[in-house]
Amino acid sequence: MRLTADARGVYPIAPTPFFDDGRVDTASIDRLVDFYLGIGSTGITVLGQLGEAPKLTHAESVDVACRMIRRASALPVVVGVSAPGFAPMRELALEVMDAGAAGVMIAPPNALRTDDQIVGYYRQAVEALGADVPFVIQDYPLTFTVQMTPAVIRRIVDELPSCVMLKHEDWPGLEKISALRQWERDGRMRHIAILCGNNGLFLDYEMERGADGANTGYAFPDMLCDVVRLSTGGAREAAHDLFDAHLPLLRYEQQPGVGLAVRKYVLMRRGLLSAAAQRQPAVALSNAARAEVDHLLQRLARHDPRAQI
Amino acid sequence: MRLTADARGVYPIAPTPFFDDGRVDTASIDRLVDFYLGIGSTGITVLGQLGEAPKLTHAESVDVACRMIRRASALPVVVGVSAPGFAPMRELALEVMDAGAAGVMIAPPNALRTDDQIVGYYRQAVEALGADVPFVIQDYPLTFTVQMTPAVIRRIVDELPSCVMLKHEDWPGLEKISALRQWERDGRMRHIAILCGNNGLFLDYEMERGADGANTGYAFPDMLCDVVRLSTGGAREAAHDLFDAHLPLLRYEQQPGVGLAVRKYVLMRRGLLSAAAQRQPAVALSNAARAEVDHLLQRLARHDPRAQI
Amino acid sequence: MRLTADARGVYPIAPTPFFDDGRVDTASIDRLVDFYLGIGSTGITVLGQLGEAPKLTHAESVDVACRMIRRASALPVVVGVSAPGFAPMRELALEVMDAGAAGVMIAPPNALRTDDQIVGYYRQAVEALGADVPFVIQDYPLTFTVQMTPAVIRRIVDELPSCVMLKHEDWPGLEKISALRQWERDGRMRHIAILCGNNGLFLDYEMERGADGANTGYAFPDMLCDVVRLSTGGAREAAHDLFDAHLPLLRYEQQPGVGLAVRKYVLMRRGLLSAAAQRQPAVALSNAARAEVDHLLQRLARHDPRAQI
Amino acid sequence: MRLTADARGVYPIAPTPFFDDGRVDTASIDRLVDFYLGIGSTGITVLGQLGEAPKLTHAESVDVACRMIRRASALPVVVGVSAPGFAPMRELALEVMDAGAAGVMIAPPNALRTDDQIVGYYRQAVEALGADVPFVIQDYPLTFTVQMTPAVIRRIVDELPSCVMLKHEDWPGLEKISALRQWERDGRMRHIAILCGNNGLFLDYEMERGADGANTGYAFPDMLCDVVRLSTGGAREAAHDLFDAHLPLLRYEQQPGVGLAVRKYVLMRRGLLSAAAQRQPAVALSNAARAEVDHLLQRLARHDPRAQI
After folding, report:
1. pTM
2. Do the Cβ atoms of D251 and C255 come within 8 Å?
3. Which neighbouring-strand residues pair with D13?
4. CB distance C114–A116 less than 8 Å?
5. Do residues D191 and D208 make contact, with C-beta atoms less than 8 angstroms apart?
6. 8-state DSSP, B217
7. In this predicted model, what pLDDT tens digit does every residue of D6-53 receive, in sequence order?
8. Among C87, C128, C280, beta carbon nearest to B60
9. Which sign, positive or negative, has the C-alpha torsion C240, C242, C243, C244?
10. What is the pLDDT of residues D110-138, one digit of tens each?
């Protein structure tokens, strides 16, 4: 099953679970996938930036992705294949596509500056991967320092039919969604899926601007599923109420660097990960920070019983 | 009255009010200052980055600062004097200090990279201004791309007695506050005031980590004053409750670029600014964005009557 | 006399002369201008990046520019007016144009990334200055971190008739000149002057690619004049011979940061500046570096008697 | 044979030869190594930035490095192992060390800013590789945007005994060499080898400042060997004469991006590479650029017969 431009709903960004000694924790992979299936996710993304992809060897990357793919069964799995060069990108992409991945996600290398450089990069990536591998643009300037205008995204979509989704995590980014959707309505651009990242910090309004869902790793993907469902179903205030209840914690988890430690700690407290461990380089959670997360969970539990952990 | 390391409370970052035709709106300056006085601010900062300082001529900068200083009367006014060179920095600093400013705020130029470059820059700034002008370090890597470790801040504080305050807006930044305060407790660093910026996005926990207050421009500085008061007074959950109620809007205003348009729009709706106008270059608020802010205000008003505007 | 797209030859970038105590050295300004006139310069640019423009107060900037303009008499003087905001840019531009400047030079602020941001910035600058002020685009990515493709330059030229010159200092940059000139030949872009900066590091081949001359501050502008004359006159190998003789020193002076100290030291040794002083922040010349420059001059003097100083 | 702090002479940066269809050209690898042996190189570095390392799969990287190592026989081979994460870095390092590599070279990832981050990164790298793998710091801010002060390099050298060499390519960088060598003379820092990169643009004076040789890929490594030999042997002016004769071409090859195309073209013209091909992404040489390189070679041949090709 290949990823298409009709993707919607929530594709959680799966963390890569490690034991404290640095080995990959496969039991937690299975537990995560089962959890994602149970909460109504419509897909999964693995080996993203916050999946610690660069810290894995090639063989480990393939193992992690394939285990997710097998376990996820009917659920489409998108695999992050961003790499400093096209040969390793191609190698990983072809292996995981063979293993049943639905598509791949590609982030731009941070030296790209001009519009032409960005479009040229995606063109070369498609030449390397083949035009039959569906791909997701990861648009995350805060991390990659690459700024894509709506017009650049449209050029990529126009030129490269295998581009089917935008992982939208520009900040600010609401107007970008509106611009792309307006072009679509005007018949000036074909439809692609827009799923939102950046820990979901603006998911409430992104849905109202025309996003199709979420593609991020917030430690309560079940909340993301609910908000997307409520918002899509027209229950606007209920969607905001639930989102707002999570916002204090969500904001805390969205911090660069330390954010992944927060996420893994909460996932561990939720019983989904055996350990909160990351491979190096990693920012550890201080005692004070851990206490703050506990406090945030406690406060959240007043509104959302899933936080009673 | 000079700024000292004992500063605390809330120093709102004052926007520079403009009419739609680009002229400075002095009546709104007066109204803002009166408002800041009325809500219990302990100081005011003018001509910050979000005070559109670079868009003013030198003469306009002096006029705006002096009008604030006179109107603020007993309240200390800190003036942003960041400039691409020391001669214009010195010129502005000396004029506003003569006019009664309490101190100046200095941001690092974005070419600085190494620890030595950063310390060297502040050393040269003090040589230019004179050692009797109290100054505030503005530590805002998201905007200035300059990363200061706690150790660099300590070096500046150790070497330069006129450094009395840190406008802390690193992100993530909680551990930085803890590190500086720990050194203080250990007698390894003299006390300086730490007031927090970055729109207050982490003010709730920053206070608990040892910050002395807020130094930011969120459109509800009265909320900032309340949160600082509640937190200082030990009413922890009440502080969080009030903060959390504002977080959806606060997060929306904290967006880079468009954030200032949000802030000025809300201040206009609150009757404090005659117009929401900015000078060029400026990001305008779309109709959709304006409607979202209205929606956020409406939702906020359920918790904080000050948002019923 | 206004700057037009027909500008050609050599516009030296004039340094701002200071005494060791930091005061502006007006006698050296006069001496420099007289020297530029004597060697066949076709114009002068003042208050560029290496004219230490950001280190001057507004009043000093006006004084330096006006003194140059008056002394240069019939020679067109371009004034750098780059500023962090349009109000100070406009103020300086209008004052110097009133005083007889031929045009202004505008560098892009280093936050610009996308093609649209760059074009938008120059559009707003022209709105601020008025469409009757001829301006030069400064395209220097190494210093400003802004990358302009040929297509972006063409968009600016197409949209803004007051754009008459490109100070070309992209690196590598030869293909950019060829692309712009090809569009001109194809009738797809109107002619603008292209004068080359970056200390002239590629002036030899830039002339052959279609540049109209040099616009840089190398301490032997008389060599630049000769190379431009020889190259324009078809004496290709003679142009390269002279250029190559200077290349060891020129490369040394082109170093970022310390380059200006080298330049001012050589200009002092040539009797054009009373002192090699810069205002802070400045990188000083070590004894070793000074000896290296002396050595380079000595070696150069074997080929060019002007280096016997 | 392990790399030690006594390394000196010339370690050419070997390009990775490709056929026009993108396959690795092993015959050219052998030819290059034989050539490096013949001209008096004292070592070889493979899989550097300009060895197109990121464009190879892991298996290809191992193959290229091992072929070099075997062919080089007694000559020490340093292998670039820079990677976005420590697991792939460790994997490659251990494989090539097993195969007889002399040591590895590690570039800092471009997100590093503060002194502590840089030192911390090298500490973690050594934890990943083991303290018995000799390593080279690659200090190339122009490409990596990471600025290391001399003090940071000293901290790394002090803390990590397996650090034995600096590939010095800061720009400007002469004072850095002097500072490190002064500390060495003062007994404040142990000796490490300093070999210079950046295409050798300042090799003439770098040798005089205390560098031990060159570690760069200029297409005439035989010239580098001669200059190092002449300079070390006290034939100062002869060293400069030879260096200056090459400077016009060397400067041309040192251009970012297009420089590798120039280098491979010259190496092909010299009969060392079968093809000038690069893998994507690559900047191609235009006809005009190729003609310029031919012209530069022709002019160089008047001084150095090795350029008669």
Report:
1. 0.97
2. no
3. D45
4. no
5. no
6. -
7. 999 999 999 999 999 999 999 999 999 999 999 999 999 999 989 999
8. C87
9. positive
10. 999 999 999 999 999 999 999 999 999 99
